[in-house]
Amino acid sequence: MKDKKNQIWNRWKNDLPKLKREAVDVLSRTYLEIGQKPSVEDIVTMANILVDDLANNTQFSTMTMEDVSRAFREGVRAGDEASVFLNVRTWNIWLRAEKKKVAKKVIEMHKKQELEYLENARLMGGTINKAKMIK
């Protein structure tokens, strides 16, 4: 499980200025990668909208800025029509896709842990049965 102190909702609550700077960095890099040239004012405005979207959407508020950065990076490289321009609709597509990937990994991890637990319980049961037979 992710450390809650790095999740967007917690950072929005406790360190909003730094969170906004990181959003500016992600957006600036993304604009450069797709060849858009917005003004500084546009980047700052979009960063404020991005942070608001991240913090106020329960689907995204548990993500980290590393998740967000990865979503943008992979979104630009996806090669679909959503990777041509950076706007609110585009980043919502990218963030939802990243959230699904992260959720799938968490489910797979929990399934693996459950299988390990069941195997350990089976082995422990065998050990207990053998110990009972020693009496």
Structure description:
The protein has 135 residues and is mainly alpha-helical. The chain has five helices and no strands. Helix 1 (8-14) packs across helix 2 (16-34), helix 2 crosses helix 3 (40-56) and helix 2 (16-34) packs parallel to helix 4. The radius of gyration is 22 Å and the shape is elongated. The chain starts with 7 loop residues before the first helix and ends with a helix. The mean pLDDT is 87.
Which terms summarize this structure?
mainly alpha, 5 helices, elongated
Major sheet details: none
Rg from C-alpha positions? 22 Å
Give the total of beta strands: 0
Spans of at least 5 consecutive residues whose pLDDT stays below 50 are none
